[in-house]
């Protein structure tokens, strides 16, 4: 009877053991170097990718980071294709309606970039601004520069390609990503930052800070992520990742 009881207990626990072994799936749009990109070997890499694996290690949870186009990130999360999003996603009131967020792990600063010597006018009347669609930066320029023409793209690299081709006068985005992913490259040598710095502390439209996005019903996962963020920062690993990806000047919360 005891042996039979043990076998029955093991069979009942087996599904739970299998579930526990399933990796936590984290999605990112790998078109945003140095935060996330596809490296020469075809693997997803970057600061947030490394940070995601560090969080999973702190939670003692196996995980995998998957590449997903920006406009499909939140729909894919809601459809349970993955469990979380780590893709420099800013907390906004609009996003809060459909997803929940962990605590903030960095603050995003934003600036315009245009060709060197071209001045940023007050309203950018007659100018073309290229931005990534569905972002706080898209909403910011749409609301504040109504006299300009706005061109929107899913891929975060496309606005910079529009600059180099002459089809856009400016782009607007994360200062670190624009510096590392464009201005410091051969394609960006003829371009420079223009105008002031904008961030969510001055204008909520730009977001309250970058955090992990997850489904509203996943409160337990949120608590585990918050604890892991604190742990990885306190251990010094977060600072080491910033240094590894040359992001030492990144604003923390």
How would you describe what is shown here?
This protein is an alpha/beta fold. It contains 9 helices and 13 strands. It has helices spanning 2-21, 47-58, 73-78, 93-96, 136-144, 158-165, 175-183, 219-234, 237-244, and strands at residues 24-28, 31-32, 36-38, 44-45, 63-67, 84-85, 100-101, 109-115, 128-132, 149-153, 170-174, 191-199, 213-214. A hairpin with a 5-residue loop joins strand 3 (36-38) and strand 4 (44-45). The protein is globular and about 50 Å long.
Roughly how many Å is the radius of gyration? 21 Å
Mean pLDDT across the residues is 91
* SSE sequence, one letter per element: HEEEEHEHEHEEEHEHEHEEHH
**What is the end-to-end distance?**
59 Å
In which order are the strands of the major sheet placed? 5-1-6-13-7
Number of helices: 9
Give me the secondary-structure category: alpha/beta
Poorly predicted spans: 1-20
Tertiary shape:
globular
Helix content: 25-40%
Largest sheet entry? 5 strands, mixed
**Number of DSSP E strands:** 13
Strand % is 15-25%
Which short descriptors sum up this protein?
253 residues, alpha/beta, 5-stranded mixed sheet, 9 helices, 13 strands, globular, disordered N terminus
Topology overview:
Blueprint lengths: L1 H20 L2 E5 L2 E2 L3 E3 L5 E2 L1 H12 L4 E5 L5 H6 L5 E2 L7 H4 L3 E2 L7 E7 L12 E5 L3 H9 L4 E5 L4 H8 L4 E5 H9 L7 E9 L13 E2 L4 H16 L2 H8 L9
Parallel strand pairs: 1-5, 1-6, 9-10, 9-11
Antiparallel strand pairs: 2-3, 3-4, 6-13, 7-13, 8-11, 8-12
